[in-house]
Amino acid sequence: MVRRTKEEAQETRSQIIEAAEKAFFERGVARTTLADIATLAGVTRGAIYWHFSNKADLVQAMLDTLHEPLDEMAKASVDADELDPLGCMRKLLIHLFHQVALDPKTRRINEILFHKCEFTDEMCDLRLQRVAASLDCNVQIDLALSNAVNRGQLPENLDTARAAISLHAYIDGILYQWLLAPDSFQLHLDAERWVETGLDMLRLSPSLRK
């Protein structure tokens, strides 16, 4: 009985997240209320507050559903024992572009994040979470690039901290532009070339040297 209750609670939580994703995509985060989400999910507002502290917490839970498929490749690229850290990063980024372009759920959530999520007063908590996530991403990229330098895959005088920020900004920029105007260029078909363009920046840019 206890197990069934836990399963039902998890089902309700997933139901709320799915309803929130649909509402945020259609109306934007700022214009969507928890009452809207409760109606769409077929639950009470109390049920939402049982699982989530506020709208920012709910948005973060929605974003967290994207992380799991990429975890193994991300961990491999920051592993000092990985023999091909740059290759792991390359696979990770190509997979990311393919996922955004071909998986409807991934595309919707990224479009919400890039184009339909306003950091208004009620979303201050989410802004802090996004800042922390962005800084952590820079650290992870820095570790991966440092491993690639140690393996001789990137120049030994690469400024990995600056390169990490540059690569992060490049990937975000590609996603931002494609989600805004998907017909303007091929993300899926040219995923490998877009990734290689970013990696060439690390290999060849004099401004990224120490």
Automatic annotation (TrEMBL):
Annotated GO MF terms: DNA-binding transcription factor activity; transcription cis-regulatory region binding
PANTHER family, alphabetized: HTH-TYPE TRANSCRIPTIONAL REGULATOR ACRR, HTH-TYPE TRANSCRIPTIONAL REGULATOR RUTR
Keywords, ordered alphabetically: DNA-binding, Repressor, Transcription, Transcription regulation
GO biological process: negative regulation of DNA-templated transcription
SUPFAM superfamilies listed in its UniProt record: Homeodomain-like, Tetracyclin repressor-like, C-terminal domain
Taxonomic placement: Bacteria, Pseudomonadati, Pseudomonadota, Gammaproteobacteria, Pseudomonadales
Domain of life according to the entry: Bacteria
4Fe-4S recorded as keyword: no
Protein name in the entry: Efflux system transcriptional repressor EmhR
UniProt DNA-binding region: 33-52
Domain called HTH tetR-type: residue spans: 10-70
